[in-house]
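input
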Amino acid sequence: MAVVLVGSLSLLAAHFLQLSASKFRRFRPHAKDLDMALMDMNSQEAEPTTLDQRMAKNKDNKSTQDLLYEVFPKHVADALKAGRKVEPESHELVTIFFSDIVGFTDISQSMSPIKVSEMLERLYTCFDKLARAHKVFKVETIGDAYMGVTNLDETQDNEHVKNIAEFAIDAVEAAGKILIDEDNPARGCIKIRAGFHSGPVVSNVIGTMNPRYGLFGDAVNTASRMESNSKALKILCSEVTAQLLQEQAPKIVVRKRGKVEVKGKGQMNTYWVQKPRCKSMLFHEQLQKKQQEEQEEQAPEQAIEHVKEGDHSDPSLHVDFADVELSDREL
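output
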């Protein structure tokens, strides 16, 4: 029996040979299909491939697959590769992040589109690296807005808020080191505002032409409102998310901002999220507190000493009449 090396055939011929040898009958092509394919092959397609060509083809296929897994969660990418329809999925609790660039409209009006796109490329390349480091799944970018989510692609039940918060803190800091215009450093660096919220969502792949992976639900809208109500270089989150964050990452500083009017939601309690204080900052704060307490303790002692020196008036009742304005009648 003759043995044919698949690697010595053309790519198209090797493909048909592999299908013909499939153990699944439905994948095996009919004889007439093979005849049609062979008749349609040109001389270039019939030429045996070299090792370099096969390696290049495999590299291209791997790059395409890698890109697919960058755009979609793994199980969604697997389904799309297999040609299966992706069904909507419900997620009980995720944390959604949004950010945008402060003053982006003015920046866009004062720079060429090329420079704006280059600025966004620098920013989003940096954000993508941070997202991988903090296990944040990048959902999409629209203009100057960046959207990410945790506890979606992989289970992060006990750290999804922590991961988003650390990502947000690093993103604000990193953006502040990226120049708006590399040819004009005087314009300064990018300032972003950010916000996040936790809640249930539904995920789905929408469309067949350039399919888009999206998240849907009230939690998405609330997360977006946290970002839009935030301020430059600050991170805002909802009350429910602040509570989860204190459980998952007690060292991250959470400060109450108060009630904010949120479109479609009314008044909501919101919280600022700040980076953990380092040991030197804690020492400085403790030192200031101790000095303040010592000053408060010394105040009554100084008042007593003042009385002992001969002034028997009550220092708490002392009035500097030079500071008192008299009316015309009293004059």
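quick obs: The radius of gyration is 33 Å.
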